[in-house]
Every structure is written in C-alpha cells, then in structure tokens.
Write a structure and sequence with these properties.
With 674 residues, the chain is mainly beta. Helix content is 3%, strand content 53%. The N terminus is likely disordered.
C-alpha cells in the first residue's frame, strides 16, 4: 500500500469539478444520495452541503463531519468532541468560523473544540479554503466556514425538512429545519438532538464514549429590496464521556446571539455591505464521577471537578465593490474580545466548585483590517490578491499556576500584557476554460499563539519560563492545482509546499509536568489526488488519495501529528428505485513520528499500523420521503487511527494503547421534506 501512496504523494484534491455547464454534464444523470466524494467549487475551495448524508455514518458534530472530507483527519478522544486536523494542522491552525463569527471552546484540555458545539445538519453549507488563500478571516493553514443561507429566495408559507437516524450502539439523531415566510418577513427554526451509548471496537472492547447533546437555533429576518436584517439566537447543551483522560465532559453549554445587516449602498457601482455582531458564551464542566465510577484512594479521597468558561464577542464589516466588469474588491474590518475564566475543586464533596467564584485567567483582544481584489486580466486569466493586518493584545490574569495535579504556586507573571502586530496576504493566478482550470498561489499567514499555547496548563518554554511570550508563527506556502474533465469523467490534482517559521511545538519532557512550548522551523508538503468516472448512465466510480508530510528542520526530525497516507475508492449504482453504494478506505502505516511531541490537542505516541475498511449504503426516494441505510466497518475490523489519543485507565474499561474506532455499525436515516 505504501508504494501506491508514494506514487500519488505529490498531488492532491478530491472530486473537483470545473465551474460551468460542463460540470453539470458529468453529474446530472446520477444523483448522489449518500455522499462518498467531494466536489471543489473553485481553486483551493471546497463547498459542500452538510444536510446531505455522508458515509461513514451521519456525523453528529463538526469534527466528525470534517473527517469525511479528503485531507481531513480526526484526533479521537471518545464518541464525540474529536479535534479535526487538515494536512497535519490542528487547533487554531484551522480557523473555524460559525456563521461568520468566532466560536471558541473553554476547556484547557481541548474537550470542547469549536466543532464540538456545531451540529452540521443545522447549517446550509460548509466552505473549506485550503491553505492561506484568503484574508477575510483569521490567518491559518485552512479556513472552515459553517454557514447558514440568509439570501435564498423566500417561499411563502411553511416548509422545511425533518429527519431521524438510528444506528448501532444506541445512536439516535433527530433534526428539524422549518421556515415560515411572508412577502418580506420570515422565521426559521433549526433543532437537533443526538445521543449514543458506549461503542465497541471490532474485538468487542467497550469504549467509554457515550454522549447526549441538543442544539436549537431560532432566526427571524426582514428582506427588503436593498436591505436585509437578521437576528438569530442559538443554544446548545450536552455531555460526553472520554476514553483518553481522567475526566468526562458533563456540561457543554453554549448560548449565542447574532445581529446581521446586509444592504446595497447608493453608489455608482454594484456593491453590498455586510455588517454583523455576535456574542457566544461557553459554560463547560468536567469531572471524574458523574459519567464514570469514582474509586477513592489515599491521594484522592474525593472526586474532582473543573468549570472553565469563555465569553467571546466578535464583529465584522465587509464592503464589496465591483467598479467595472471583471474587477471586484472586498474591504473589511473585524475584531473580537474573549475572556476566559475557571474554577475548580479537588474535593468536590466537601468543597464543591459551585461554591467558588469564577477567576479570570486570560483576556484576548484582536483587531484587523483586510482588502481582497479579484481582477480578470484576460479572457481566461484571473488574478486574486489580498492583504491583512492583525493587532493582538493579551493579558495574563492567572494568579496561581498548577504545574501538576497536586501542586499550586503563585504566578510571577500575573498582570503582564503582551501586544503584537501581524501581517498576512496572498496572491493567486488562475486560468479558466470550460473544461480546464489551473491555478498557482502563494500565501503568508501570521498566527498569534492561542490560549492553550500561552496560558493553558501552565506550559513553559525550554528556558523554564512561562510560554506566555512564545513567538507568533508564520506559514509561507505555495498552492498549485489542475482540474479537468470530459463528458463522463473528471480528474483533479493539486499540491502544496510550505515553510513555517517559529512553528509552536509542544513536547512532554517530564512525566506529570507541563508540556514545553518551543519555536522551531518546519517544512510541509503534500496534497490530494481525486477523480470520478461514469462509464455509463447508472454507474459512478470515484477515488481519492491524500498525502501529508512535515519535518522539523530545527531538530532534524519528523513533524508530529501528521496523518499517514490515505486512499478512498467508491462506487455507486442506480437500480430502478434504489441507489446502491460502497466505499473502501485504506490508510497506510505511519512510521514518521516524533515521540511525545505534538500540538495543543495531542502528542505522538509511536508508530501505527495500516488498515482498510469497507462501508456500504443504499438509498431510495419517494416524493417527499427518503430512506438511507448503511453499514460502516462492514467486516468489523479492530483498528486505531494514528492521531487517536492514548487510552486512559477507567474503572470498568480495558486500558488500550490508542482509542480505537467503532466496530461494525448499522444505521438508517429517514427524511421528510415539506
């Protein structure tokens, strides 16, 4: 298998199509119901519909959804709350945008990445910008936008879609998206509820992984001829058990509101103004007794609990201008403020955390201005450019540090303030024809360290001082790609190579002590290769290969937390009223690792074995009703992803080297459109 991956290792991208009528020619004969591929809408950008089922089993949070896209992987910790990675980049190296606003978790141990609060079915599209090829959001190795459609035409009356999913290991998912509209006004409600029991791996080992979550969004809006005003409120709740640590997440509460105004200004050129402000409050609780058995001992006679919170306020304004045909400008500003706080108890029975005050431990402020320009410089040539400047201010508010579970000490740096100004930008050239698209781009993304790198878990530098002054890192990357197709086929390949100056590397150098944060120089390269062939009207064959590589130039070693090579092959056949499909996924062994080094989510724990799995599905549609059924991991294999975290010692469960993936899983989904 490794030889196959090496042969495809210099190219990237899966299931792209060239924009225009030629793309429609390939796909109109056979509608994909359960999605096993992905189509790229434009250079370096994926645009997918999260309401359409994807295999493996329908995703219950944002991380589970993203891992099904080529180039993405998931750092598994249990049944939910996994951290997505893209091309070996994780944490704040991925900019997760929630309906044009910022959403940050609160847990210092990353129980709640931003995607843990996102229910994919409650959004209308997911847009992924690969590489530093946009400056409209925080600089990163990739931008993932979960968006709701506020501009679609209003259909008067009540309409929507409702769905129910049932699956192995007690999995249940219910979703409702309903909208009522009049001529100028509308109201829309989106709700979801999901739960699952502990799953078993292919060997029958029970994994501490159950979860229960709910999410509700209410949106009201006015749409005039030149103005649109929208207000939305979102609330989500949940709990989740984890197989890789000594605590579970017993509360994941989010309350979020957004106000958005879109307008056309009275200018002599085509234009639009988009202004939004939103606030998100995260209230998270983790403990070691509510969702698992607690056994007291001499060191810990009582259970422990922790309650981190985060309040984030963000705003942005973007003015889009088209001064002439073939030229467009986007001029914008954005900013955010977030306050992190925490309280905890190591003796929850006698001194519960609820009786203690929340203590602020870190405050972040960010302001930015950006400009993007699109310019058609010939019949088939386009030039895209963008520049951005971010100004950051952060205050260390930690009065005490906790370098180990049983040790507390005063923070000598309490009250210190750090400021930094960072510049980012990109430039990309594209050639566009009806059946061919070629692009080459260069981007620079300067990323300020996040809460977990600066303040989380009392981490230090190699000199033994606080990591509060760790340097910002800068990614400089080339992206290139080709997309071409004929009447019954499409093939795409793209590649990237980059350098990261002052890459923030975490290392566990001593047991039970905080990780050390170092700035190193890193190199990246890789990509994805993809294609689709429809030999006749009712059959579609698809395939993709994903490759990521990283090296630590400073220490002459591998860059940690980089997923191994991966291949996917799928087929789909339409037979009368049914559509039948299947997917084979193969992952190579990973021998390139950096022991006890990684990022804010996880550290490398050694090599991993290769594996392959098979999944199948079938679908049928009636007028307003659709049925989808499937089996994931058909042959009930036991396997672990390289990025999965180490198993913890939990009463009633076996301790495993890595958290394994679920065994054979059967699922069914019913959707009704009204």
């Amino acid at each position: 298998m490794n030889k196959v991956f090496v042969a495809g290792g210099l190219v990237c991208s899966a299931f792209y199509s060239v924009a225009g009528s030629a793309a429609e020619t390939v796909s109109k004969d056979l509608e994909t119901v359960v999605v096993t591929g992905i189509v790229m809408s434009e250079a370096s950008t994926l645009n997918v519909d999260p309401k359409r089922l994807r295999q493996p089993a329908p995703a219950h949070d944002g991380g589970e959804y993203l891992k099904q896209l080529p180039g993405f992987s998931l750092i598994r910790k249990g049944g939910s709350g996994g951290d997505p990675t893209f091309r070996g980049m994780a944490g704040s190296r991925l900019s997760i945008v929630n309906d044009d606003g910022m959403l940050l978790g609160g847990c210092s141990s990353r129980m709640d990445p931003p995607t843990a609060y996102i229910t994919p079915q409650n959004y209308d599209r997911v847009i992924v910008v690969k590489g530093p090829q946009s400056v409209q959001y925080l600089p990163s190795a990739a931008t993932v936008r979960f968006e709701r459609d506020h501009t679609e035409a209003l259909d008067p009356g009540l309409h929507g879609v409702a769905g129910v999913s049932l699956g192995s290991f007690g999995k249940q998912e219910m979703n409702l998206d309903a909208q009522y509209a009049s001529t100028d006004y509308y109201a829309r409600f989106r709700g979801s509820q999901g739960s699952a029991d502990n799953y078993r791996d292919g060997d029958g080992n029970l994994i501490n992984s159950h979860y229960d979550r709910q999410s509700f969004n209410t949106e009201v809006g006015y749409r005039g001829e030149t103005n649109q005003l929208i207000m939305s409120v979102t609330q989500s709740m949940g709990e989740a058990a984890y197989a890789d640590r000594g605590m579970d997440g017993v509360r994941f509460d989010r309350r979020q509101w957004q106000l958005r105004w879109m307008s056309e200004l009275p200018l002599a050129m085509q234009n639009s103004l988009d202004v939004s402000i939103q606030q998100a409050d995260i209230d998270h609780v983790m403990d070691n007794y509510s969702l698992r058995s607690f056994v007291p001992n001499a060191m810990r006679p009582e259970p422990a609990a922790m309650n981190p919170t985060r309040e984030t306020t963000s705003a942005r304004a973007v003015l889009s201008l088209e001064p002439s045909q073939g030229m467009a400008w986007r001029i914008g500003v954005d900013g955010s403020e977030n306050q992190h706080a925490n309280r905890m108890s190591m003796k929850q029975y006698s001194m519960p955390y609820e009786s203690k005050p929340l203590l602020d431990d870190g405050r972040f402020e960010q302001r930015a201005a950006f400009v993007e320009m699109d310019w058609q410089i010939g019949e088939r040539w386009w030039w895209f450019n963008g520049v951005r400047q971010d100004a950051w201010t952060v205050e260390d508010q930690r009065k005490m540090l906790m370098p180990s579970p049983m040790q507390m000490m005063p923070n000598p740096g309490v009250g210190e303030i750090r400021e930094d100004d960072l510049n980012s930008g990109f430039s990309r050239v594209e050639y566009r024809a009806s059946d061919l698209q070629v692009y080459l781009g260069y981007g620079r993304a300067s990323r300020f360290p996040d809460y977990w790198e600066l303040l989380g878990k009392a981490r230090t530098t190699p000199m033994g001082t606080s990591s509060f002054y760790a340097e910002s890192e800068t990614l400089s990357q080339w992206d290139a790609g080709v997309m071409t197709q004929g009447d019954s086929w499409q093939v795409s390949l793209s590649a990237y190579t980059g350098r990261v100056d002052d890459f923030l590397l975490l290392s566990a150098e001593q047991p039970m002590q905080p990780e050390v944060v170092s700035n190193i120089e890193a190199r990246l390269w890789g990509g994805e290769l993809g294609g689709e062939w429809r030999p006749f009207e009712k059959l579609a064959l698809r395939g993709s290969v994903s490759v990521s590589r990283g090296s630590n130039v400073t220490d002459q070693s591998y860059l940690p937390q980089v997923a191994p090579n991966e291949m996917r092959l799928s087929a789909e056949y339409q037979m009368q009223q049914w559509t039948l499909g299947g997917m084979w996924r193969g992952v190579a062994a990973q021998e390139r690792f950096a022991l006890n080094q990684g990022n804010i989510v996880a550290l490398d724990k050694g090599p991993s074995a290769g594996f392959s799995t098979v999944s199948i599905n079938a679908s049928r549609k009636w007028q307003q009703l659709s049925l989808d059924i499937g089996v994931d991991n058909l042959f009930d294999k036991t396997y672990q992803e390289f990025l999965s975290t180490s198993g913890a010692t939990i009463v009633g469960f076996d301790t495993l080297p890595r958290v394994p993936e679920p065994g054979r899983s059967v699922w069914a989904n019913v959707r009704y459109t009204f």
